[in-house]
Amino acid sequence: MRAINPKETKLNLLLLFVPITLYFAYMSDDETIAFFASMIAIMPLAFLMGRATEEIAIRTSEAVGGLLNATFGNAAELIIAFFAIVTAYQAGAGTTTESTMVQIVQASLIGSILGNLLLVMGLSFVWGGIHHKEQSFSDAQVNANGSLLLLAVITLVVPTVFHATVGGEEGASGVESLSHAAAIILLAMYALFLLFQLKTHADMFATDGSHHEEPEMSIRDAVTLLVIATVLVSWMAEILVHSLETAAEDVDLPYLFIGIILLPLFGNAAEHFTAVSVAAKDKMDLSFAISIGSSTQIAVFVAPLMVVLAWAMGVPLTFEFGTLETVATFLAVMIVNAIAADGKSNWLEGAMLLGAYAVLALAFLYHP
Fold first, then answer.
1. How many structural domains does the chain have?
2. Which one, of 357, 293, 356, 350, lies nearest residue 125 by Cα?
3. Quick one: how many helices (H) and strands (E) in the chain?
4. Residue 200: predicted pLDDT
5. Which domain holds residue 120?
6. Choosing a second label site near 81 at 20 to 30 A (CA), which of 239, 257, 268, 289?
7. In whole angstroms, what separates CA 349 from the centre of its chain?
8. How crowded is residue 270: how many other Cβ atoms within 10 Å of its Cβ?
9. What ranges make up the beta strands (E) of the chain?
C-alpha cells in the first residue's frame, strides 16, 4: 500500500472528465468528444479501483490479496472487452459492427500485453536507471512469468498458422474450436500459476512493500470505493465502446491503433505510474512484478476468459489475432526475456524496449 502523494491527487482531478463524458454522450450527442473524454475518465477511476483493492488486500492473506489484484489489476481492459463483446452480440452475426468489436477486443488485449512489456517496463528501466546505475530483480519472476507468456504466445501463433495451413471454411471452423480448447487450457494454467506464486512457492515471489503498511481506509470505505469506481468504469466503458466507431471515422484512426495503443495506454495509466515511480525507489521486484505480471494476467487470464465469454454468447472471437499482432507479441516476449534474463536492468535496456514499442506503434498507426 502506498501513501497518497501530490501526483496522485492531480490524477484524481481527471475525474472531471466523468461529467464531461456524460454531457457529450447524453446531452450534446457528440460521440467523438464522448469517446476521448471517456477514455481519459477511465484513468483516475482505474486508479481508485487499484487503491480500494490494495486496501482490501492488505487485510487478507497473500493468496486472497493476490487473487484480488489479479482480478482487479486489469479490470479496465476486462470491462472494455466485455462491453465490446456484448455490443458485437447485440449487432448480430455477420454485421460490420460485430467484426469491428471483435477486432477491438483482440487489439486491446494484444495492446495491453505490448504496453506492459515494452512501454511500462521500458519506462521503469529508464527512470530507475537514471536514479541508480544498475538495478536487480528476482530471477524467479523472470523465469515463471516469461515461461507462461511464451505459452500464451504459442496459443496466439498456432491458430494463425493453422488457418494459413488449412485455409477455407474448414480452417476457420478449426481455429474457432482450437481457440475454445486453448482458452480452457490457459485458464487452467493460470490457476496453477496462482497456486505456485501465492501458495506453494510464495517465498520466491515476495516483494517489498506488499503487506507491511497500515490500512488508510476502513474495510467498509474500501469496498464502497471499489463498487462505485467499478460501476463508473463500466459506465465509461459502455460509452467508449458505443462511440468508438464514430470517433475512429471522424479522426481517421485505424481500429488497430485505437485498440492496441490508445485503450491500454489510458486504461493502464495509473498502474504504469506506480511501476515507474517504485523503480526510482529501487524497488525493482515490485516494478517488474507490476509490468510483467499484468502482461501475464492479460495473456493467460483475461484473453481466454473473453474467448470463453464470446463462445457462450455466439460471438466469433478467437486467438487468431492477425499476423502483425501475433508477430509483434512474439517479438516483445522474446526481447523482454532476453533483456531480463540476467535479473538486472539499466537505462539503456529500457531505451531499447521503448524503441521497440515506438516501432510497433508506428506499424499499427500506418496499418490500413
1. 1
2. 350
3. 17, 2
4. 81
5. 6-365
6. 289
7. 22
8. 21
9. 135-136, 344-345
Backbone angles phi, psi at 173, to 5 degrees: -65, -40
Kindly report, residue by residue over 159-176, the tens digit of the pLDDT.
888 888 887 777 778 899
Taking residue 331's Cβ as centre, other Cβ atoms within 10 Å add up to 16
- Render pLDDT for 95-112 as a digit per residue (tens, 0 to 9): 999 999 999 999 999 999
CA geometry: angle at 63 spanning 2 and 270, to 5°?
Answer: 35
pLDDT for the residue 60: 66
The long-range contacts involving 127-131, CB below 8 angstroms and separated by at least 24 positions, are 127/276, 127/279, 127/280, 127/350, 128/279, 128/280, 128/282, 128/284, 128/287, 128/345, 128/347, 128/350, 129/345, 129/346, 129/347, 129/348, 129/349, 129/350, 130/280, 130/347, 131/280, 131/282
In the predicted model, what is the mean pLDDT of the chain?
84
User: Does 144 fall in a domain?
Assistant: yes
Angle between helices 347-365 and 121-131 (to 10 degrees): 150
Q: Rounded CA gap, 258 and 269, in Å?
A: 15
Of 309, 287, 332, 368, give the one whose Cα is nearest residue 111: 332
SS3 content of the chain, % helix, strand, coil (to 5): 80, 0, 15
**CATH number, domain at 14?**
1.20.1420.30
Give 136's DSSP letter: E
- Contact, 211 vs 65, CB < 8 A? yes
Distance CA 127, CA 328 (A): 24
